[in-house]
Design brief:
Protein name: Nucleic acid-binding protein
Radius of gyration: 28 Å
Mean pLDDT: 85
InterPro entries: YceD
Order of helices and strands: EHEHEEEEHEEHHEEHH
Shape: elongated
Low-confidence stretches: none
Strand content: 25-35%
Number of helices: 7
Distance between the termini: 93 Å
Number of strands: 10
Length: 185
């Protein structure tokens, strides 16, 4: 079974629950959407797709691993995935009203072009669950910052303390100006 189903296939499954247990290789579309992604393992997708009063409810568990660059050193970092996805898919004719949407506690997606595409939903959830900061284990353990010839990265705390020290020291150029008008007083 595929992770893409046509409206025709969905209508045949109207009163059945479709059990999914698929391996999905989404490396090409994910790398296209997120060019900095280094690698994506094959994803294991397990779940169900069933019809309820409004449309089709997907309940999926997605496991695998993605590899992204560290936000500090650009070294590759593997991030395990274990996503729980629950979404409601409706045909355009069955789109719920705004009041109904506000009372629902799940994401409602309109099926476009007569195709329910679970792969795109999985891609979206993977991208939404990428942390803003990614560090290697060594960077986490030792709080190491990148350095180079004549430069180094410092933490915000170090920057704040350096700024305070510099604010307390008088500017030597202003000190020279004080002596300029001594004779006039």
């Amino acid at each position: 079974m595929s992770l893409k189903l046509t409206s025709e296939q969905l209508l045949k499954l109207q009163h059945q629950t479709l059990h999914l247990d698929e391996q999905a290789d989404l490396s090409v579309p994910l790398k296209k959407r997120l060019p900095e992604m280094i690698a994506v393992s094959p994803l294991h997708v397990v779940g169900t797709l069933r019809n309820d009063d409004l449309g089709w409810v997907s309940q999926l568990t997605v496991t695998g691993e993605i590899t992204l660059p560290s936000t500090r050193s650009l070294a590759p970092v593997g991030l395990p995935l274990n996503l729980q996805i629950e979404e409601l898919y409706v045909l355009p004719a069955d789109q719920p009203s705004q009041d109904e949407l506000e009372q629902m506690d799940q994401t409602v997606i309109t099926i476009e072009n007569d195709l329910l595409d679970l792969e795109t939903a999985i891609e979206d959830h993977i991208i939404l669950n990428i942390p803003t900061q990614i560090f290697t284990q060594d960077e986490l353990d030792h709080q190491t910052m990148p350095t180079g010839e004549g430069w180094s990265v410092i933490s915000e705390d170090e920057f704040s303390s350096l700024a305070e020290e510099q604010a307390e020291q008088p500017n030597p150029e202003f000190e020279k100006l004080k002596d300029l008008f001594k004779d006039e007083n």
